[in-house]
Amino acid sequence: MESNKNYKILITGGAGFIGSHVVRRFVTSYPEYTIVNLDKLTYAGNLENLCDVEKMPNYQFIKGDITNVTFINSLFNNHEFDAVIHLAAESHVDRSILDPSSFVTTNVFGTVNLLNAALAIWKDHFDNKLFYHISTDEVYGSLSDSAYFTETTSYDPKSPYSASKAGSDHFVRAYENTYALPIVISNCSNNYGPYQFPEKLVPLMIHNIRNNKLLPVYGKGENIRDWLYVKDHAAAIDHVFHRGRKGETYNIGGFNEWKNIDIVRLLCGIMDDKLHRPSGTSEKLIEFVKDRPGHDMRYAIDATKISNELKWNTSVTFEQGLEITVEWYLENKAWLDRVTSGAYKTYYDNQYKNR
Ligand code: NAD
Ligand code: DAU
To answer: What is the pLDDT of residues 231-272, one digit of tens each?
Structure first.
């Protein structure tokens, strides 16, 4: 998409973790754009994540469900969107193991519903229109050797979550192939940073260390993930949106692989320091628990294409990013306390009770 236009952009899932960073970046960097944030506000959506931009004149929030056909059609009829950046999804692998169907509904059907609405409204007037689908590296499956996921790696999803994201990616490409809908897709590695819901590894460990609770490491803690600071992902999305070639896929990652146990130990050290606890205190909380069923061993993204073609690169090292993240969670205790009250407790007890 060319910049310096008065685009109206629909961002779905903008009240979630990554979505809130994308909304903030677009609202503040492009005052000439109108950003409409559509979010159902599930357990993972939180308007507090956006309180610093909610009064900006180029920002609007709409509460709604991407799976509601009538609602989505009338939304597209009432707003002349130039582009969609689609992040809304059920995003947690452990929850997908507990309830796969809800992942099919939101991630597959919700995406198809948006594609249908975009197609109907844009018809054959596709100039300067874009449906940008945000996806994950998990669609490529699990690596057991030293290889990387590239844009041409075959899909091999292994969890209900990744299968639903793979399904949504396939539909997005099918709409380009069949109807010439202008699309682009990016597949990113594990994000961490401020505003992440504490069901995911990094904020869950920070929350538990702060509260002297056990730190549940699945299996032997040897599974490897490739970590990226969330603001670097938001910057990559900006690059792909403005400079990406239509129909292309861009892998996003920081060439930053870590074993889970090493991250947990690193966090323990940072937290001991920040909380003025004797070194080694938090590591005593580590507990190896029953493994995640079908636990993918290793993810590793080859981000050469986005780096060479779109000149995107990471801005912080993992150590710097984790330090900023820990600081943020410690300074935003009220946010963390609020999101971990109520339904979170029920989820946590259920998820970790037999481990
Ligand atoms: P998240 O769970 O924090 O946020 C998801 C948001 O979507 C929430 O605000 C939620 O309310 C909203 N939502 C859910 N169902 C909806 C519905 N039916 N209608 C409207 N809104 C709905 O997720 P996240 O971690 O920010 O991930 C955002 C996107 O990025 C997802 O598509 C995810 O697959 C993808 N992704 C995430 C990561 C990661 O590490 N978190 C990495 C790569 C890709
Ligand atoms: O790779 C991108 C994906 O990263 C995204 O598409 C997903 O939306 C996002 O949730 C994330 O998936 P993971 O399953 O890799 O993230 P999670 O934080 O749940 O787990 C990271 C690793 O830590 C994984 O190997 C499982 C392990 N883990 C996780 C939790 C919550 C533990 O050992 N203990 C835990 O309590």
So the answer is: 999 999 999 999 999 999 999 999 999 999 999 999 999 999
Give the tens place of pLDDT for each residue, 140-166. 999 988 899 999 999 999 999 999 999
Contacts with 67 (C-beta within 8 Å, 6 or more apart), sequence order: 105, 106, 109, 110, 113
| Beta strands 286-289; 215-218: pairing state | parallel
Q: Which residues of 164-189 are buried (b: 16+ CB within 10 A; e: fewer)?
A: bbbbbbebbeebbeeeebbbbbbbbb
Which residues surround ligand 1 with Cβ inside 6 Å?
12-13, 15-19, 39-42, 44-45, 65-67, 87-89, 91, 106, 110, 134, 136, 165, 188, 190-191, 197
In CATH terms, 8-192+227-256+297-316+344-353 corresponds, of 3.40.50.150, 3.30.1330.30, 3.40.50.720, 3.30.70.100, to: 3.40.50.720
Please state the domain extents for the chain.
Answer: 8-192+227-256+297-316+344-353
